[in-house]
Amino acid sequence: MSTPATNKADWVIPVGTSRADWRERLAPWAFRAPLIFMVLFFAIPMAMTVVFSVFERTMFWMEPGFTLYAYENFFFSARLVNFLNSMKYSLISVAICFVFGFPIAVFVRKSIPQVAQHRVVLLFILPFMVSEIIRVFALRPVLQRNGLVNSTLMDLGIIDEPISALLYSHTGVVIGEVLSFLPFIVFSGFLAMEAVPKFIFEVCDDLGVGPWRRFVDIILPLAAPGVFAGSVFIFVNGLGVALLPNILGGAGAVNAGLIATQAISALDFPLAMAVSAIMMTTLMTLLWIGHKLFDLTKILTPLS
């Protein structure tokens, strides 16, 4: 005669089950629930985005069909030029974030006591407790012609007249991207550096290895998965966050997110879906290349 537990689904827990049995039965759902969430709210919407991008546009919405007009409207117009320009400036932002952010991750791992390392890294995450629109808008009085940067440079005698290119230009967008996304290269770089034993630094010092050789030949190859993951995050957000060119950019500062926003405002939903599909394809291609080059699963080694 079978017990009640064998006649019910795995998620049904009979009365009188011990606490250990509860944990054993519920433990698999700790892994299934995030997977179900990602399928429902990420994979399926992304697949629907690709499908909707080939629908035919109507006056206020779209209807089922198959047309590549939205993609033609993107690739054979100024939108493609703006998209390529935003890619260029996003790469510049990635390079600047790496120059300033990754040395911070190395310094925290090498010089800060291990008990305090996570607390120090947390300091770089605290700015994200503030709304992004507030953080970005707060840059305008700093970067404008009579703002803090220009006033300081003129008081020091470094410049004779204000620099107009700091705001309402591609330069302003790059500055906004760096200040907005710098913590991600610090966090991902530190996460990768946790896999590097601390005695590596001591051995290099004992052998007389210079800082440059140690960085290029040892530290950077070991931390490459984390650096790449953080760089992809910065690059994709630089392409997709429409808030930055809206607030800090000029007439020519347009990225993919702003193109999609403008398409939605014009009720051209297939075009907005096509831009989203192109962005998604770009992200997946970058992740595939990075995984082939660096095996991005290594970034999770410290957590295993």
Describe the structure.
With 304 residues, this protein is mainly alpha-helical. It has a single domain (73-303), classed as MetI-like fold. The protein has 14 helices and two strands. Helix 2 crosses helix 14, helix 3 (69-75) packs across helix 14 and helix 4 (78-111) crosses helix 11 (211-240). It is globular, with a radius of gyration of 25 Å.
Search tags:
single chain, 304 residues, mainly alpha, globular, disordered N terminus
Number of strands: 2
Number of separate structural domains: 1
**Low-pLDDT residue spans:** 1-11
**Alpha plus pi helix count:** 14
**CATH topology term:** MetI-like fold
- Give the oligomer, counting copies of the same chain as homo and different chains as hetero: single chain
What portion of residues belong to β-strands? under 5%
CATH architecture: Orthogonal Bundle
Determine the structural class based on helices, strands and strand pairing: mainly alpha
What is the CATH first-level class name?
Mainly Alpha
Strand order in the sheet with the most strands = 1-2
